[in-house]
From TrEMBL:
Keyword entries, A-Z: ATP-binding, Nucleotide-binding
Pfam family, one: AFG1_ATPase
NCBIfam families the record matches: ZapE (NF040713)
Gene3D superfamilies in the record: P-loop containing nucleotide triphosphate hydrolases (3.40.50.300)
Keyword Nucleotide-binding: yes
Record InterPro entries: ATPase_AFG1-like, P-loop_NTPase
Domain of life: Eukaryota
Protein name, UniProt field: G3705 protein
Taxonomic source organism: Coccomyxa viridis
Gene name of the encoded protein: g3705
Family (UniProt): Belongs to the AFG1 ATPase family.
Length: 525
């Protein structure tokens, strides 16, 4: 990550926060906007004009406040909140959480309240372990005499003798369903972390790509994994990984050794995941090699369940115009191709095939492209041996993807389903606009995929279909994918896409909102 990703033509720091370079909020302004977009639709921090446009597009309040009795501001309701009243801290993630609750950007959620307390406790432990510098110009030394080897960075930040220095605190592993606020809360921790934490925040996809890239560069050394572990811990001391989910056997077999060495060097690990530790890489190949990592993970982190019945992403209004199916069109593929031509006409550039560079010298062919827009068939993008690195490179070059012919997933196209999940995750993480023709709506794409527990339910067994398959990995991931596909069609998502990638789209979105626009797909690139 950071400067190490020299083979990828994109600024990876936009997705990886390193507090050793200064406070995050100064270098990554979209963070707050993204969090609020995900978890409190249309209440992110932006200009009053943009906020007015977004509010005008709403047909009703997601929280239903306008439907219940006398109107009261969210700030007034929050003032009477015992939990917020109990918060006295002026720094750390809980202080930012309180600010966002009072401003109305977050809504009350008991699970999130317990989670922010756990994150604040970890923050306080890290802060208490940092030895303050004396406000003088004198050189500070730990001792006079021969240099002693320190066990790890944490002990080097603490005062007192080595025998009095405590171990690094346990990290935090947050798991729960989609849209429960895991990422939002972890980002509050990252945003509030001082430079001394030397924190890096990234996604599991990006982290593993970075690890494999480093291993590739060090493959001629005797023990490249040990060198990579040492190199990583020299660059960051607190690692925040979003969407921790293991499906690849190569990742599964190396994680225990990699993280064990980083933990021995004092790494503090924070992660979000849809699955509890015991459910990671369930039924995977050579899982016995992965089990020691699970055991070590449970020792090195506090495992915290943030499950909630509320999916905040689905509170964003769903709007048509980006997802083309036979429910609305006789020929969805033709419709989405027409959408690509309309976008290309406004681009005023040549339309044709091209290719882009991917890591390790590979190239990804692009069937049709024009400016920041590209078009693929589903089989070209998910039916071939492509992976997250290809999709990340795609997002570095294009802000809009037109995808034709997404099928209903079943046993015969299970591997394509895995690639589609990865594609949606990467598009979502980079705020890419997606136009898509498919055989069904988002929730219909995975109707034949179920987990073992779902398959044992009597109602499911009675309605079983020949195409139904049991796949825990796909079954647990499909809800996240459906949630993200739904949000990616919302007005809120497109506003953020325009702000990040294509500001000229703002005018089209404003006009659509003024007309009560059911269609938010602007005819501009």
């Amino acid at each position: 990550m950071g400067g190490e990703y020299v083979t990828l033509p994109y600024d990876s720091e936009q997705r990886n926060y390193d507090t050793s370079k200064g406070p995050i909020w100064r270098r990554f302004e979209p963070l707050s906007a993204q969090n609020a977009r995900l978890y409190a639709p249309l209440r992110w921090q932006s200009s009053q004009a943009e906020l007015a446009v977004a509010e005008a597009a709403l047909e009703g309040r997601p929280d239903g406040a306008d439907e219940e009795g006398p109107e009261q501001s969210i700030a007034q309701q929050a003032e009477r909140d015992d939990f917020l009243d109990s918060i006295t801290q002026t720094e750390g993630p809980i202080a930012l959480y309180k600010q966002n609750r009072l401003s109305g950007r977050y809504r009350r959620d008991p699970r999130q309240e317990k989670t922010i307390l756990a994150l604040q406790e970890l923050y306080d432990q890290l802060r208490s372990g940092i030895r303050p510098r004396r406000p003088s110009g004198l050189t500070i030394t730990d001792h006079v005499g021969p240099t002693k080897k320190r066990a790890h960075w944490w002990q080097g930040l603490l005062g007192g003798s080595e025998s009095e220095r405590p171990k690094a605190p346990r990290g935090l592993y947050m798991y729960g369903g989609v849209g429960t606020g895991k990422t939002m809360l972890m980002d509050l921790f990252a945003e509030s972390a001082p430079p001394e934490f030397q924190l890096r925040r990234t996604t599991f996809h990006d982290f593993m790509l970075d690890v494999h890239s480093r291993l590739h560069r060090m493959e001629r050394t005797s023990d490249p994994l040990t060198l990579v572990a040492a190199q990583l811990v020299s660059e960051f001391k607190v690692l925040c990984l979003d969407e921790f989910f293991v499906t690849d056997v190569a990742d599964a077999t190396m994680l225990n050794r990699l993280f064990s060495q980083m933990w021995e060097r004092g790494l503090v690990f924070i992660a979000t995941s849809n699955r509890a530790p015991d459910g990671l890489y369930e039924k995977g190949l050579q899982r016995d090699l992965f089990v020691p990592f699970i055991e070590r993970l449970q020792r090195e982190t506090v495992v915290h369940d943030i499950s909630s019945k509320v999916d905040y992403r689905r509170l964003a209004q769903h709007r048509r115009g980006l997802f083309y199916t036979r429910h609305d069109f006789e020929d969805p593929d033709a419709e989405v191709e027409a959408q690509f031509r309309a976008l290309a006409d406004a681009c005023h550039e040549a339309v044709g095939p091209t290719e882009i560079k991917v890591m390790m010298g590979r190239k990804l062919p692009i069937p049709q492209a024009c400016g920041g827009i590209c078009m693929f068939s589903f089989m070209d993008l998910c039916g071939k041996p492509v992976a997250a690195a290809d999709y990340i490179a795609l997002c570095a070059h294009f802000h809009t993807l037109v995808l034709k012919g997404v099928p209903i997933f079943k046993g015969s196209n299970r591997q394509e389903g895995y690639r589609f999940l990865t594609l949606v995750d990467v598009l979502y993480e980079h705020n890419i606009r997606l136009f898509c023709s498919s055989e069904g709506l988002p929730f219909e794409l995975f109707q034949h995929i179920m987990t073992r527990s779902q398959a044992n339910e009597p109602k499911v067994m009675q309605g079983a279909h020949d195409d139904d398959i049991i796949d825990d990995n796909l079954g647990f991931s499909k809800e996240r994918c459906i949630s993200r596909l739904t949000e990616m069609q919302s007005f809120e998502y497109l506003i953020e896409h325009a702000r990040q990638h294509s500001p000229q789209l703002m005018l089209a979105l404003e006009q659509a909102s003024k007309k009560g626009g059911e269609t938010v797909a602007g005819r501009r690139n």
